[in-house]
Amino acid sequence: xxxxxxxxxxxxxxxxxxxxxxxxxxxxxxxxxxxxxxxxxxxxxxxxxxxxxxxxxxxxxxxxxxxxxxxxxxxxxxxxxxxxxxxxxxxxxxxxxxxxxxxxxxxxxxxxxxxxxxxxxxxxxxxxxxxxxxxxxxxxxxxxxxxxxxxxxxxxxxxxxxxxxxxxxxxxxxxxxxxxxxxxxxxxxxxxxxxxxxxxxxxxxxxxxxxxxxxxxxxxxxxxxxxxxxxxxxxxxxxxxxxxxxxxxxxxxxxxxxxxxxxxxxxxxxxxxxxxxxxxxxxxxxxxxxxxxxxxxxxxxxxxxxxxxxxxxxxxxxxxxxxxxxxxxxxxxxxxxxxxxxxxxxxxxxxxxxxxxxxxxxxxxxxxxxxxxxxxxxxxxxxxxxxxxxxxxxxxxxxxxxxxxxxxxxxxxxx
Length: 415
Prior knowledge:
By secondary structure, the chain is mostly helical. It has two domains: about 10-385, no CATH class; about 385-415. About 70% of the residues lie in helices and about 0% in strands. It contains 15 helices and no strands. The chain has helices spanning about 10-20, 30-40, 90-105, 110-140, 140-150, 155-160, 160-175, 180-210, 215-245, 245-255, 260-290, 300-325, 330-335, 340-370, 390-410. It starts with 11 loop residues before the first helix and ends in a 5-residue tail after the last helix. It is found in: Cell membrane. It comes from Amnibacterium kyonggiense. This is Membrane protein. Keywords: Cell membrane, Membrane, Transmembrane, Transmembrane helix.
């Protein structure tokens, strides 16, 4: 899906590849800020991790199916007492879920979390761009020239500085040690960089569900790498579909022997395919990244659907604003890197809606539990995937407290 353009005459799709490459130039300046924000992701002292294990304050109900379940006895994610889907929730439950989502979105500091996710997104863009250019070069050597001369042509006049950066990156990717090696290096670099994004997204999801990361590193890292591989494959596939237009598609079609009818069909179905790819990527991130056993895997959850709709509306609104104003305010303030700044803004909005959708899914789960009589007022009652690492950290914290208390009581004396 195209990002908004910064100039009225530039094509929206050209902004994707241009700003993706140009953004790598300023990524180093974001390291310090992202590190500080990422620290907030790892631990928020204002929102404790510990689950409530006290007695149920609501008392008993008349029937077994409606009896409150104490937080200490976490029910199964798909307990039969819970409403099966959003359509089974009552109106007051829906009202509570919507209000609670808005409150938790603010208290979880999702705007800061989205900023950290933007940084990790930027790190993966350079290697991903190299991989995409290498794939195009393998399919058709002339496709790279078409990409530079036609797909990026509108930027040459609107943002010459960004154009120079992009063309230099494409030239290096296509000529240095062959496109085959560039493909391998690009994919490995994209996987390593994107694994940082998946890790940060998982910590943000843990914040949303108010749980610690309890999986040991030998279990967590392979899971993150598998999720990374799946998401990177989907993103690269989506990017290839996005840039495959006009002469580029025709050249690739000639190489693999696709006729004109197939090309016409591809141009029609490419946008629905991109939507399906986005849905799959979101579903994988939502389900596998947090340390919580959620209800059964769903390709489309209410939160992911809401995220896609809000993302589409926000992207369209940003595009309309930039088209009407011609991106003048950004161009005056940021000059040649205005397109890069707009792309950063768009990435921030994208991660915001992803976190909002996850927050909404979490609060819908809380609402399902509350309607089923499960005491989820303080903590969403879903079991964690693993607690070994969090238990180890809790024990270390207790030891540190004991050591600090002994130091205070002895006034620092060893005798």
